[in-house]
Amino acid sequence: MQTDDFEINTEGTKLRITGKRPDSGIATAQDALVHEINDGPFDSVLDIPPDFDLWRLSSAYVNGTLRITVPPGPNRS
After folding, report:
1. pTM score, two decimals?
2. DSSP-derived secondary structure for 14-66
3. Residue 54: burial class (beta carbons within 10 Å; 0-12, 13-18, 19+)
């Protein structure tokens, strides 16, 4: 995947990751015994506790791994 293949959005205390994984070009489930990488559209929603600051989230996509960091809010001890 490339960074253009997905989006990261926030709504209130929800973090949403949506996108479409392109066809990998590897064998399909009909051609292989095990196929663990799904292609096509995806939509993941995570509920973030309210004591974390979604306004200051950061993300990085390196070597096929998406890392999202959500720092604690100012009132979290």
Report:
1. 0.73
2. EEEEEEEEPP--S--TTT-S------EEEEEEEEPPTTB-GGG-EEEEETTEE
3. middle
Does 36 have pLDDT greater than 80?
Answer: no
Rounded alpha-carbon distances, angstroms, from residue 38 to 9, 22, 65, 66, 69: 22, 9, 15, 16, 25
In single-letter form, the type of residue at position 66 comes to L
Phi, then psi, of 3 in degrees rounded to 5: -60, -25
The domain spans of the chain are 3-69
Q: In residues, how long is the chain?
A: 77
What kind of architecture, by CATH, is found in domain 3-69? Sandwich (2.60)
Give pLDDT tens digits for 4-20.
Answer: 889 999 999 999 999 99
Question: Cβ contacts of residue 49 below 8 Å, gap of 6+?
Answer: 13
